[in-house]
Amino acid sequence: MRRFRVLALTPLSIAAVLIVFCSLAHANGSQFLESYSDPQNPQHIFASFDYASTDGGYYLLHSKDGGKTWKTVPQPDPDREGNITMYGRGYVVGGFFISVGPSDRPRLVITYSDGGDIWRATSELQWQKYTAPDPSGSTENFIPTNHPDRFFAITGGVNADKKKLLWTDTGGTSWQKLSDTLPFGCAMEICRASTSADNRVLVVGLSDTKGYISRDGGKSWSTVPENRLAAERKALESDSKKLWPIKGTPDQVDAAGRAIMAKEIATATAQQKSPDISSVNFIMIMYEKGYDFKLKENIKSCFSSRGARRVRGDVPREIDLADDGTAKAVLEKAANFAQEKCPRSEKEKFADINVDLYQMATLAVSAGTSIGEGSELTWSSLYENRPRDAYLRAEKSRQEEQRRRSEIEARRAKEEAEKNEAKKKFAEFVKKNGVQDWPNMTNLSANPFVYEGKTVAIPSYFTEMLTATDGLFRQQDSYFIVSSIPKGLLTSPAIIIFAGNVIGKKETPVPGVGSQPIPHLKFVGIYICHNRYCADILGK
Asked: What CATH topology corresponds to 441-538?
């Protein structure tokens, strides 16, 4: 589990270096993501939990007793039911994040949006409402920083070509637009930001698999090569002044999260029924002045021509249009509305109907019936369901990221096993050969008599045997000679770790230099390395 560094954020009005690292959590395996305790009330802990189910999604969990028990967090809007979540079916917009800071006056703040307005609260969950970052587009996700009042928002909802990146340093009371396009892939991902004293801003995800960098405060971007991600993270983290402890073990949150979500899904399944679409409001759209449309609340007469009957439906956000069955039910109601307002013969009652369904002022679903005859309701190939498509894209991304994260975790597990094995080999080598010191070769060459009588270990390169029992070794450009090597032990050049007793210096022929005094050691033992840097015993 990664912990996030808390650093001091500078306003983005100053040119900054912004680096973005993003990752999705598991899509096919429930997983604890992160948790934060309230510095002012450590018994209150909030955690993100990725629940792999038919609906999917990330859930916000809350513990009031230091992580012993957990509950989901109810929606802050009194007019809405359910709990705070994001990215599940029906939640292709909106998100939440937990933030602790600043370091001089630390506090915990939850920030949440269901796609429209923003809600914020401390650990006591007394919510306050703020206006949406972009009234023209729904709020899709946040990129928080280490300061609770300073964060990014991604807007645009299901419209991929209308996504924007905005910034606030006032807790959401005012916003600055940084980009009219989304420069990186944090729309359906978990991302976090930190900064350093020299105006760099680092956004870190749950795995270091993607990176983007901006040097002008977020207005333009370029990709960070994967081989540079670790270095960029290390550079930012070296400036960290405070690291907040994460309370509650992953196992506790995993068990609690699975139990809570399993219970909720069982309850929802038992109570499953057809969605209530009675609250959808329909109006006819009439032609005026060519192709300009005007909304008509009360239609007194229909088209004089036999053109299409156009219907607009405004769908409350609680209705899940990402579900094709629900969307088709709303479309059927729209078609009946069109026939009621502009009736045609039984043979043509469902012909020439075009429907646009809007949700949170954003076009969500479009469909049309065939031209001419249509006694049966059949939607043509013009059917387009943006919430469903966004959900499916998100699921595909989640699955791809799951595969990538699995590969990363497998690689890290392998590296950890190799690291543990290296520690074991290192301890065995030190014990077996009685190693007392690991001298720097520069110091050993300058004055080997400091180590006289000691057993030392030196990572080195065996070059050649000078006699049957004397061998020449080097570490970079510094050479040393070893005597009393067992005959036939070394038959070819190799990277080794040598253990020996320091005797002093001995006049020895050195390649390219000639005869000169170099450190002289007596053989005690060696370890033949399996790679260039002896990582199999020294670790990485």
From this structure: OB fold (Dihydrolipoamide Acetyltransferase, E2P) (2.40.50)
